[in-house]
Each structure stands twice: as structure tokens, then as C-alpha cells.
Amino acid sequence: MAVVKLNPQTVPGIKKMIGVLSGKGGSGKTFVATNLALMLAKQGYRVGLFDADLSSSDTFHMMGITTRLTPSKDNKLSPAEKYGVKVMAMAGLCGKPDEPVMWRGPISSKITQQLIRETIWGELDLLIIDFPTGTPDHAISILQQFLLDGIVMVTQPQQLAALDTQRAINMVTMLDIPIMGLVENMRGEIFGEGGARQLTERNNLTLLGSIPLRKSIATMCDKGTAAVFNSDELQMIFTKIARSLVETFVVE
Ligand SMILES: Nc1ncnc2c1ncn2[C@@H]1O[C@H](COP(=O)(O)OP(=O)(O)OP(=O)(O)O)[C@@H](O)[C@H]1O
Ligand SMILES: [Mg+2]
């Protein structure tokens, strides 16, 4: 299948853009994206986090952000900020956190692009983009319109997830965007392990890290507690993931 890559653009002031993507819903993209952003900020980088999931915008909740974002007179938006990470998400723009967002594809795409371009990010070393599941119009438009420097692919260990992830890997490869590696999430008794290793071998990719399935992780996400700062195990895993990304980029 031919895939069109439309003259993708950079965003002034942002050095590198990284997408966090997966082929499967609920595999932990938002958990990985938020904790990666937190870890990179802790390591001293200027980090932004854009929540590209318009209808299930979860980053604010996972980071314990309750700020409501309102545009300035000239229609510019300042992001929320927590632990040094600048965060822009629909959750901050809706009147109430449980307000549904039901936009048709062209509107979602237009608004997503505007939000990425017109948010007052300031100077950023890295903008992490938390992708929605699947291939809604606005997600494809980010992949086609913005010059992404790399994708972090999240997968669960079970075979079904591996199949979905393989599709996502194929899509990103067709779009000619580098895949920086795979993060296996929810390893353990329930979903097993090893699926990510097979994918890395088959696709010649790096396994950036493997995160266990833990009740404590789910609880921290629910409570909006920064998981990576409250678990030595996660701190170690995300330090390693963050380092390998930065080493690939050589962000000064
Ligand atoms: N390693 C883990 N251990 C336990 N729970 C986890 C783990 N990773 C994520 N979760 C929980 O699983 C749920 C799904 O995670 P998350 O929202 O990050 O997935 P997602 O891929 O972003 O989902 P969506 O497809 O809706 O965007 C969340 O409730 C989160 O708290
Ligand atoms: Mg999500």
C-alpha cells in the first residue's frame, strides 16, 4: 500500500519531536509518555508533552494536573506545567474532565495541528506526543505533517498485542519515521513475556525497556501520582529509556 508523507514540518523552538505509539488500546502509551517526559525533565531537558488523544485525554489525570487552560486575547494557549514538563491536552481545554469530545476527522486534524503549532511551548529540547490508539485522522495527520524525529513503540507481551504492534511498526516504517525502539509494558503472569523480544528481533529494533504489570502502577496512574518518582524500579527503567533516546539524538 502506498503511503503519502506530506512535506512534514518542524515546529519553531522545538528541537526534537518524539511520538509514543502502539497498535493496541490500553497498552500503556500514556503511562509511558508521561513518565518518559517526567524523567527527561528530571535529567535537565526542556520537555513538552502533547496529548494527541482528543477523546480520551488522560495525561492531565495521570500527572495529577487539574489546571483549566484558557486562550489569551490573541488566541494563544499556554500549556499547564508540572515537575518541569509543559503539558497540552484536551482535558485542560474542556469545561469539565468528563466532557465528551466528538469531532469529525477534518476538524480533529485541524485542531490538533493548531494546538501543536500554536501552544506557547517556549524553547523545548523535546516534545513527546502521546498518540491515540489506532489510526484516527488526526493521528495520521500528525505523522504526515510534522517532522517526527522518532517513535517509541509500546507493546504488551502477548501474541495478540505483538500482531497489532507489527502493523503499527509497518505503518511507521512506510512513513519513513525512525523507530527508536520498543517498550514492553505489563510483563508478568497475566500477559506473559517475550512478545516484545520477538518483535525487536524480527524488525531489528532495540528493546528500550520492559515494565512489569503491577497493581501499584495502576493505583499511581489512577491517583495522578508521578509513578516514576515513586518507584525505584520504574525510576531505573525510565532512566535507561530516557538515556537511550537522548544518546540517539545527542540533544545538547
Ligand atoms: N505496567 C502497568 N501496570 C499496571 N497498570 C498499568 C501499567 N501500565 C499502564 N497501566 C494502567 O493501564 C491502563 C491503560 O494504560 P494507558 O492509559 O497508559 O494506556 P494507553 O495505551 O494510553 O490507552 P489508550 O489506548 O486508551 O490511549 C491505565 O489505567 C494505567 O493505569
Ligand atoms: Mg492513552
Structure description:
- By secondary structure, the chain is an alpha/beta fold.
- The chain has one domain: Rossmann fold, CATH 3.40.50.300.
- α1 (29-42) crosses α9 and α6 packs parallel to α7.
- The model has no long low-confidence stretch (mean pLDDT 90).
- The chain is 38% helix and 19% strand.
- The chain contains nine helices and eight strands.
- Bound molecules: adenosine-5'-triphosphate (ATP) and magnesium ion.
TL;DR?
The protein contains 9 helices and 8 strands. The protein has 252 residues and is α/β, with parallel strands linked by helices.
Physical arrangement of strands within the biggest beta sheet? 3-4-2-5-1-6-7-8
Residue stretches low in confidence (pLDDT < 50, at least 5 long) are none
Largest sheet, in brief, is: 8 strands, mixed
Q: How many angstroms separate the termini?
A: 38 Å
CATH superfamily: P-loop containing nucleotide triphosphate hydrolases
In the residues, how many domains can be counted?
A: 1
Instruction: Give the second-level CATH assignment, the architecture.
Output: 3-Layer(aba) Sandwich
Shape: globular
Series of H and E elements: EHEHEEHHEHEHEHEHH
Tell me the radius of gyration. 17 Å
Small-molecule components bound: adenosine-5'-triphosphate, magnesium ion
Helix coverage percent:
25-40%
Q: What count of helical segments does DSSP give?
A: 9
Structural class: alpha/beta
CATH fold-level name: Rossmann fold
What is the strand tally?
8
Mean pLDDT, all residues: 90
